[in-house]
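The following block was generated as part of the benchmark described in Methods. Ligand: pyridoxal-5'-phosphate.
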Amino acid sequence: MIANANIKIEKTKESRVTNYDVNDVPFGKCFSDHMFIAEYADGKWQNASISPYQDMPMSYAMSALHYGQAIFEGMKAYKSITGDVSIFRPLENFKRMNKSAIRMAMPEVPEEIFMGGLLELLKLDSAWIPTSDTGSLYIRPFLIATDEAIGVKASDTYKFVIITCPAGKYYTEPIKVLIETNYIRAVEGGIGFVKAAGNYGRSLFPTKLAQQKGYQQVIWTDGKTHSFLEESGTMNLMFVVGDTLITPALSDTILAGITRNSVLALARDWGMKVEERKISIIEILEAHANGTLKEAFGVGTAATIAQIIGIGHVDNYYPLPPVEERQFSPKIDETLRNIRKGKIEDKFNWMFKVS
Ligand SMILES: Cc1ncc(COP(=O)(O)O)c(C=O)c1O
């Protein structure tokens, strides 16, 4: 049960939703009418409010800008075929956000603020949720340090904010990924397992280099030996080798993806062999050479399932079987879509009902 977070609500005078076709907008560029904000000061959460979407007044000395105390989450709300609104596993995002908060020396966000704010916001902005088969409302909760102060220390004040934007397909085509053996996303003891803004900033330069070589994304490898595969962009990685689904085991260098957890639950439910363990580059290249590498794909909230059609390693390119020949990942993609759209039974209770 979510307690009342005493949210002050100021509704927009005129909705902007009619300016857009919510089923056809570029990802992350058009924001819905309202936003939720709560403030942390004097050791407590206060001033929970929903207001029309607007810019933030801030100091150029705001500590998040200088010292990186900035974390975020990403999840999606869906409109079912009967018009009901629900969110995919939001309590998992809530828990993960607070893991990030602890690691970044930030205050945890109480459940009544996170969930209470989210539910009120979605009730107000439900007209922004796409109705198309692959559409959803992307939800971006984030927490930032707001002290106006230069000097490296944990901030005393913070803002927790939720904004949302309609989203269609993230990748419209299968992707090519390059195994990164020079730059590092995360190291043991670091912050790879949390959604801290700095993890993403550091990924941009290597990704740009990979894109210059014709790839859409990189596959990160372990920071010590560059011989084990970890993640790809903002997705966890999965392979079907022979009849087994394999994925890198979670560690403090890998984000515990909610899509990853859901795909593994479905695969196990279907009786598929599943292994969570270290996966070396050599193992995948050998499976490619002997024809047992059937599928490779990334899994994450933004993309759901991103098919990988080729992998680059050093100067070599390894094309993978066409998507049409794949048995497992298209079925997973369709099953997740059907659960989210209320077309099939939600036997794991993943959909959190808003209305
Ligand atoms: C680095 C990273 N790995 C994996 C994921 C996939 O996680 P999820 O399925 O919870 O979206 C994300 C996206 O949140 C990410 O940023």
